């Protein structure tokens, strides 16, 4: 059953990548701005129509969009996304070179989510209706509601402008990385803690929990060995599915905290109409989304007792 699921997911991955690559390529080519003209006028102040036509032919923009797309796909199969219009280097090499900063930021945000969301969800579920539950529920509501750019600017104002313990412009400071990770993790902490609370409360009065308590098992062991295991599949699925959004959301955070990561690089590529880099970034993000979702679903299935019984 797992092999069938993986085979279907691989087919799904290929179909989604083909669809997203076509949409991104098509939308980029129907944009009102001519990339050849933008490139020439950026490189030379004395650009004329002849020079623009020359670069349009060099980049292949004089061909029909379907023919351009087929030529692009033929090169992508060989991991060749073309060269950046700005630097002249391979587009995928440019994207990969900006990836380490984004991965460090994303991994720290993932760690913060686990360290904060799980204890908050457990504490809220074990004290329903009490002050702790109300405070945690209020925090979760605020965490989900506050836009990332507002929180990022607020942290920059407090720690960078008022307290002056981190640079306002520039990267490399540990506090800048931590603040960026907090901004990324903040909404996910609220969502995951609320989901965990709901799942724990839903199963708190289940027969197997009452039976475990009747056997004299402590509340801590019941929580760890029964309730958390039951809630784990849904939480892991939600956690994994949101990692893709977390990576894609680094553009705002990297711009606010001046971090030279993948998000900021893609934003600059969009401003400069650097289409090879934009297409490489979109395909890479689509792959990350599907990979995270598939991995989360597999772990959720493996941890689900009902699925284990069915597969056995």
Question: Can you describe this structure in just a few lines?
Answer:
This protein is 79% helix and 0% strand. With 312 residues, the chain is mainly α. Helix 6 (99-126) runs parallel beside helix 9 and helix 9 runs antiparallel to helix 12.
What do you see in this structure?
The chain has 312 residues and is mainly alpha-helical. It has two domains: 2-95, no CATH class; 99-260, Orthogonal Bundle (MetI-like fold), CATH 1.10.3720.10. It has helices spanning 2-29, 35-43, 49-59, 65-76, 91-97, 99-126, 131-145, 148-162, 174-203, 207-214, 219-248, 250-256, 262-271, 275-303, 305-311. Helix 6 packs antiparallel against helix 7. The longest helix is centred in the middle third of the chain and has 30 residues, at 174-203. It starts with a helix and ends with a helix. The mean pLDDT is 81.
Q: What would the keywords be for this entry?
A:
about 300 residues, mainly alpha, MetI-like fold, flat
Mean pLDDT: 81
The tally of beta strands, per DSSP, is 0
Stated plainly, the CATH topology of the largest domain is called MetI-like fold
Major beta-sheet overview: none
